[in-house]
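Quick start: what a row looks like.
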Amino acid sequence: MTQVVSSLPPLALLWLGLALGLRHAADPDHVVAVGAIGARTRRLWPAMQLGLVWGLGHTLTLFIVASGIILFHWVVPPRLGLGMEFAVAVALVIVGLSNVSAHRHEGASPNIRSARRAFAVGLVHGLAGSAAVALLVVATTPDPRWACAYLLVFGFGTLLGMTLITTGLALPIITASRRWNVGDRVVRTSTGTLSVAMGLWLAFQIGWTDGLFLATPLWTPR
């Protein structure tokens, strides 16, 4: 696979980066996080804005850290890599608990707190995925200029994909919230519970199965 990818011309690699970025947006932890964040509003455009803000945060940290790995040969120790992934689990739990404890939706437009929360969660997810993306880029092209261009296109693909996914999730959520009086509370509680459950599951996997809290951590960037 690596040999085939590395033989592609630069422009084809950028298209590949866009496609992989779109695919990356559909990772379960991404979808659960943005679904929980978007469930705090009953309007489509505000929900799309939150997905866009999440994508901006994700792209920012992914580009900075992955570029550092490529250009300056930063080395990410296994325990640090697992720690970055564990931060995603913590973020999912926090987002989920905030949904479960919320007493009302956030109106026609996302407030500053919602935007900051979406941006922060995006930052954490981008940080956790940066090492795996950097390794893929290194295996794909030896030219650092094209590698950085690849990262930007990958990040744009993730941003676009997450905006589309947020829109797709928001439509049924908004319909349910408007049709049933209890819909708003049910949607927030269900998305929050799912986010907490995934966060706890990831915390167990990373902390003990992968060994973050054990003597010898086992880490494969993903």
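That is the whole record. Residues 195 and 218 are 25 Å apart (CA to CA). The radius of gyration is 18 Å.
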